[in-house]
Request: fold
Amino acid sequence: MVIQIAESRQISDLQYEFNQAFPYLKIEFFKKQHGVEKPSPAQRMFTQKSLVGDARITKEEGSLEINEKMTVAELEQAFWNRFGLSVQVFRKSGNLWLETTMTDKWTLGQQNEHGKEITDSVRKGNLPEDDFELRRGQD
Reply:
């Protein structure tokens, strides 16, 4: 998939396009870049109605090719390096959206498949046995 990055686009447009390709993942945009395997505070999140131009630190426009073999870390770094956009990937886990901080080295395809498996299990009445994000801080 290819996402077009332009100042006049709303963040919701980019989120929608990404979620069409990866239905168990979503991207959120933040005012500051987060560290590797670190969560992003919710109060720093841009609203969906915000314009891309308001959310980035550079004026670069263009397209970003995204594929299922990219890791979460690679995707987030590409948004930052090319467009000055601080992005965090979230994965669906049942009825929750979890930041993928503990699994940033997984590919987008792996993340999406894991989200599907867990969400399908919850819908069938089974609790997820193993969701790394839910266990964060318990080790």
